[in-house]
Amino acid sequence: MASVAAAAGSRRLRRVSQLAHRRGVLAAVLISPAVLFIGALVGTPLVLAVYLSLTDATAGSLSGRWVGFANFRHVWADGIFRGALWHTFLFTAISQAVVVLGAGLLAHALVRRFRGRWLLRFLILLPWAAPVALTTIGFLWFFDPLASIWNWFLIHLHLVSKTSPPNWLGTPTLALTSIIVVQAWRILPFATVIFIAGISSIPQEVDDAAAIDAADGLKKFWYVSLPLQLPIALVALLFGIVFTATDMVVPYLLTNGGPFNSTQMITTWAFQTGINSGNIGEGAAMSLFMLPVLAAVAVGMLVFARRSEVA
Amino acid sequence: MAALVRAWREKGFVYAVAIPFAVVLGFPFAWMAVTALKSQAEVFQPSHTWSFHPTLSSFGFLFHHTKYVRWLENTCFVGLLVVAITLLVAVPAGYALARLAGRVGQSLGVAIFLTYLVPPTLLFLPLSRVISTLHLQDRLWALVLVYPSFTVPFAIWLLMGFFKTIPQELEDAALVDGCSRLSTIVRIVFPISIPGILTVVIFTFSLVVNEFVYAITFITSSTNRTLSVGVPTDLIRADLFNWPGIMAAILIPSIPLALVYNAFLNRFIAGFTGGAFR
Amino acid sequence: MSDSDNVMREGGEQRLTRRRLLEKAGVAAATVGVAGSRAPFSFAGPLKYKGRWLSGSLSIIQWVHFVPAYDTWFDQWAKDWGQRNDVQVTVDHINNTLLDTRAAAEVAARSGHDLFMNLHPMASYEDQVIDHAEIIQEIEKKVGPYSQLGKLATYNPKTKKYFAVSDNYVPDPVVWRHDLWNGVGEAPYTWDHVRSAAPKLKAIGHPIGIGQSQELDSDMALLAFLMCFGSFVQTEENTPDLNTKRTVEAVKFMADVYKRGEDQEIFAWNPSSNNQGLVSGKLSLILNAISATRTPEDLNLPFADDLWIYPIPIGPHGRLGLEHVMGCYSIWKFAKNKAAASKFLVDLCVNYKEATLASKLYNFPSFPGAFPFKQIRKAAAADPHKPHGKYTVLVTIAEKYTKNPGYPGTTNAAFDEVFSKYLIPQMFAQVSQGKLTAAEAVSATQKQIKAIYRKWKARGKI
C-alpha cells in the first residue's frame, strides 16, 4: 500500500518536473513572435529616434552632427514647449478623469438588463466606432464660428448673446476645453467597454456571496465591486492616458496648436518643429521628453494595480 | 416590498445614467445626419439650420465622384488582416505571460507595454525608411506590416488580464487528468476566453480604423488610401470643406461598425454571466 | 539559355536607343508645341503612344488645387504628355497642409515621387534635391527669362544653387463686398481707409477678416501687411531685421483694426476659413487669391457680382504685396526618373498659357514669356463675370505689387522656418488679444528669428 502511494508520488513528481521544463520552453516559443515583431518595428525605430534627438538632423535626412543634449536643453528653454508640456498635462488629466468616472458609472448601468439597453449601448458605442480623424473634422463643423450647433442651442436657450456667441476654437481657454471635450467624448465608449469587461469578469460566486450577505447597492459597490474593479479601472485609465498623451490627431485637426500656441501639445509641437520646420533633431527630443514621464506613470500604476489585485 | 423598491431604485439609477450619456455621445451623430442631408449651398446658410430640403446628393457624390468605396474596402482589408495577425501573435504571448513565465513574464509584460508609450509621430520617419527598403511604399501591405506594432502590445495586455481571471484550478485539473498543456489550452482555456478574444478583435479593429499618421505617411495614391486619410484629403477640395459629404462619409462606416461592436459586446457579456463558473 | 540572354540584352539595348530617339522627338515636339501654342488650347505633337504600355514612368505629387478645374486640366495634360513621351505619368493630389509631412517622409525613406510640388519653395531641403539650373536655362531658352520673383524665391546665393523651379505664383488681392462697403461710404484704398471702415462694417454684422492664426493665409497676409508699413523680416543680405519701430507701429495698427472691426474667430482659422466666411456672406473683406471669387461664381451666390478685387491697400511705406502661394517643383536627388521629370517641368513651364487659363487666372506663370502680361490682361478682360474687367487688376498686382517671400532678401531656409512656425501670426495675435504689448511681442519674435537664422548660418545655407 505504502509502496503504491510512493510510486504514485514519484510519478507525479516526475510529471511536474516535466511540465516545469516544458513550461519554460513553451513560454519562450509562445512569446517570441511578439517580442521579435515589437523589437523590429518599435524598438529599432525608437533607437534611431533617440539617436536623432542627439544630433542636429534636419529635414528628414535621418543623420546629422552629434550635439549631445543640446536639443534637449534648447527645447526646455523654449517657452512654447513648456506651455505645451502644461497643456498636455491638463489635456490628459482632465479628459481621463472625466472618462474614468463616466465610464465606471456607465458600465455599471449597462451590465444590467433593462429595456432599450441595446439602443442606448449602440448610441454610446458610436463615437468609438467612427474613425477619430473624421469625427474630429466633424467637430470642426460643430464648433464652427458661424454654424455651430451648440451655439444655436445656447442662443435659443438665451444663455449667450446672438451677436457674440462663444468662439469655441478661437479663444485660448475655450479651445482647450473643446479639445478636452472631444477627447473625452471619443475615449468614453472605449473605457466603458473595458469596465464592462472588468465587471463581467467578477466571478459570479463573489456576486452571490455579496447578495447573501445582504450587501446591496452602495455597500456592495464600495466594499466588493470597487476593490475588484480597481485593477481594471487602472488599466482603462492607463490606456486612456497613453492614448491621449501620445496621440496628436485631435489637437492637430481641431486647432493645430492655436490660437497662438495656447493649445499646443507636445505631440503637435514636436510634429510642427520636426516636420513643418524641418528640425528633426528637436522634434525627436520633444517626443522623447514624454517617454520617461509616461513610463514612470505607467510603472507606478501597474505596481499599484498588482498590489491591489485580489488573489 | 423592500425588494420591489430596490428594483425600482435600480431601474431609476440605470436610466438616469444611461440616457444622458447616450444623448451626449450620440447627439453629434444626429447632427451629422442632418448635415449630410443638406446641399452644399444650404449648409452655409444659418436660416436653414433645421428647415431645409433634404437631399441624398452628398451620398451620391461620395459613391460616384470619389473613391470612397475603395477606401472602405481598403480599410476593411487592412483591418481584418491586422486583426488576424494580432490574434496569432498576441494570444500565445498573452497566455505565456499570464501563466508560464512567472516573474520574468511580469517584467517582460511591462516592457512590452512601455513600447506603447512611444508616439507614432516619432516613429513614422524611421519606419518610412524601413518601408521603402522593403519596397512597400504606397501599398496597403505597409500598413498591414506596421499596424500590429501598436495593436499587439495592447492585445497582449488585454489577454493577459483575461487569462489571469481564468482560475488556475481549471487548468491544473485538466493537466493532472493527463492532458498535455497544448490540449489544455485548446480544449479548456480557449473556449472560456472567447469573450476576451472577441474584445481583442473589436479593439484591434477600432485601433486600425482610427489610425492616421502612418496611413498618411506610407500611402499616397488616392486608390490606396484608407478612410481616415481619403476623406480629409479628397473631400476638402478648393478652399471649402464639403461638409455634407464629410458627414455622410463619417456615418456610412460608423453605424455598421457600432452595430457589430454592439453585437460582440452582447455575446461577450452573455459569455461571462453564463459560463464555467457555475 | 544564352539565346534568351541575347534576346533580352538586345531588347534592352533597343529600348535604350528608342528612348533616346524619343527624347529627341519629344524635344522636337516641344519646339513645335511652343510655336503652336500661340493658339489657345492647342496640343502640339501627336499622341504617339496612346493605348499601349509605356516604357518609362514618372510620379508627381502636388496639392489639391483650390480651383478644381485646374486639376482636371493638369491630370489630362500630364497623361497626354506621357503618351507623347512614352512615359507613364501618375499624379497624386493631397491636401496642401499635408505636403510638408509627405516631403519629410519621402526624404526619410529616400524614395518617393520624382517631382514634388509644394506651395512654398522647399529651401530647407536644399541638400536633398538636385540643382535645377539646367532646367531653368532650358526653359529660358524657349520662353525668355525667369521672373525676378521666381529667381529670388528658388535660388540660394550662398550655395549658388537653384533648389526648385517655380512654375507659377498666385497674386494676392483683397476681395471685398462692394455693396457693403458702398453702404458705409468707404472703399479699401489705403489701410487707413480699412481702419476707419472696419467698425462701421462690424456694426452692420459684416466684419473684416484678416486672419491671425497658425496657418498659411494669415502668414502671407500679415507679412504683406508688414511690408506696406516698411517692415521686413530680413534685409537684402538675409539678416534678421524685424525689430524696428515700423514693425511695432504695424502690429499696433492691426491690433486696432481687430478691436474695432474683426471677430474673435480670426484666431482659430485654417486656410479655408476666410473663404468660408466670405461665401457665407458674413465677411466684408479678406486677403485671398481669386479662389474666393470663383467659388461664389460657381455656386451662383447672390452677391457674387458684388465681390470686387483690389490690390493690397496702401500703407505708410506704399503698396507691397506677396504672392498668395507659389507653386514650386523640386526633383529629389534620389528620384528614379530625373530625365523625364526635368523634361516634364520644361514642357509645363513652356506651355503655361494653358495652365493659367485652366486655373481661371489663379496661376500666373513664373516665366512670364509663356503668357505675357498683355495677353493675360486681354484674357482677364474677356472674363464674363461682373463687374466686367474686374480680373484685369490681377495683372497690375502681378506686375507691380508682388514680391517673393523674404523680400528684399531671398526665400531661404531660415525664412522658411520662420514662416512654417507661424511666428508672425503669433506675434500679431498676442498683441491683438492683449497678452503682450507690441514692443514686447516684436522683440520676443526677433529673438526667436535670430536663433533660427543663427542655426541656418551655422549650416552654411545663408
Describe the protein.
The complex is a heterotrimer of chains A (311), B (278) and C (462). Chain A is an all-alpha fold. Chain A has two domains: 1-41; 79-307, MetI-like fold. Chain A contains twelve helices and no strands. In chain A, helix 3 runs parallel beside helix 7 (172-200) and helix 9 (217-246) runs antiparallel to helix 12 (280-307). The mean pLDDT of chain A is 80. With 278 residues, chain B is mainly alpha-helical. Chain B has a domain at 67-235: MetI-like (MetI-like fold, Orthogonal Bundle), CATH 1.10.3720. Helix content of chain B is 78%, strand content 0%. Chain B has helices at residues 2-36, 40-43, 57-65, 68-100, 102-114, 120-133, 140-146, 148-165, 168-176, 181-192, 194-210, 213-218, 227-235, 243-273. Chain C is of the alpha/beta class. Chain C folds into two domains: 2-167 and 327-371, Periplasmic binding protein-like II (D-Maltodextrin-Binding Protein, domain 2); 174-310 and 412-458, D-Maltodextrin-Binding Protein, domain 2 (3-Layer(aba) Sandwich), CATH 3.40.190. Chain C is built from 18 helices and 13 strands. Chain C has helices at 2-36, 68-85, 99-109, 133-143, 148-154, 178-183, 191-203, 216-228, 245-261, 273-279, 291-299, 338-350, 352-358, 373-381, 393-400, 413-420, 423-432, 438-458, and strands spanning 56-63, 87-94, 115-118, 155-156, 161-162, 165-171, 174-177, 208-209, 285-287, 307-310, 321-331, 364-365, 402-403. In chain C, the strands form three sheets. In chain C, strands 1, 2, 3, 6, 11, 12 and 13 form a seven-stranded mixed β-sheet that branches. A four-stranded mixed β-sheet of chain C has the order 8-9-7-10. In chain C, strand 4 and strand 5 form a beta hairpin. The longest helix of chain C has 35 residues, at 2-36. At the A-C interface, helix 11 of A face helix 3, helix 16 and helix 17 of C.
